[in-house]
Amino acid sequence: MAKRIAVVEDEPLLQQNYSMALKKAGYEVVVYESKQEAEKAFANRLPDLVLLDIGLGNEQEAGFEICRGLRQKSTQLPIIFLTALDSDLDIISGLRLGADDYLTKDISLPHLLARISALFRRLDSLQTAPNASAIHEVGSLEIDNERLSVKWNGQLVDLTVSEFWIVNALVSRPGHVKNREQLMQAVKAVVDDSTITSHIKRIRQKFQRIDKEFDSIETVYGMGYRWNQA
């Protein structure tokens, strides 16, 4: 059965573009253009994934409110913010509300489809036994490239897909600096410097919730970031 994706977007042209691309990829698509319309539909049936804009009509934070409500209904429903807002505050707010990813609207449709596929793959893999060959350990870090998941000292770190790819890129060569362009390529999306900075800050915070002494991600000023193996 085809996965059902809800697109919550108030711009007709974007509604059409996303719908056509998703349907061509084999997904079932439903479109909602307002907070009220989306919330009414979600009260009756949750989709398999939600693409969510933040500003809807005259409601500048409608998407945040929808995300908060969806997380109360389901902790595993994949939610992707797809918005023109790219400030640190917006990104951090979206991720704190429980979104799995935060993308800006300049992302290409092939990259958007790849991100959606990755989220579905992660969700499916979490329901099956882990593949030992996909697990890579670096010190206290355990990274599962099949489940797109990360553990620190045996505890799961709740990373978004974007954050996972950044950690994966840094860990691929511990001690070597990855510049912002390389991390952008790892994220598989067009993002600016401030977005990478926000992701790094958020990643550190998530590791530090588990281990207050976590300091494996080092900022190399003027160059980028590197993973220092303990």
UniProtKB/TrEMBL annotation:
Keywords: DNA-binding, Phosphoprotein, Transcription, Transcription regulation, Two-component regulatory system. Residues 133-229 form the OmpR/PhoB-type domain. GO terms for cellular component: cytosol; protein-DNA complex. One of its GO terms (biological process) is regulation of DNA-templated transcription. Residues 4-120 form the Response regulatory domain. Signal peptide: none annotated. PROSITE patterns: OMPR_PHOB (PS51755), RESPONSE_REGULATORY (PS50110). Coiled coil: none annotated. The modification 4-aspartylphosphate is found at D53. InterPro entries: CheY-like_superfamily, OmpR/PhoB-type_DNA-bd, Response_regulator, Sig_transdc_resp-reg_receiver, WalR-like, WH-like_DNA-bd_sf. It comes from the Bacteria. GO terms for molecular function: phosphorelay response regulator activity; transcription cis-regulatory region binding. The keyword DNA-binding applies. Residues 133-229 bind DNA. PANTHER family: DNA-BINDING DUAL MASTER TRANSCRIPTIONAL REGULATOR RPAA, REGULATOR OF RPOS. This is Proteobacterial dedicated sortase system response regulator. The lineage of its organism: Bacteria, Pseudomonadati, Pseudomonadota, Gammaproteobacteria, Kangiellales. The gene is pdsR.
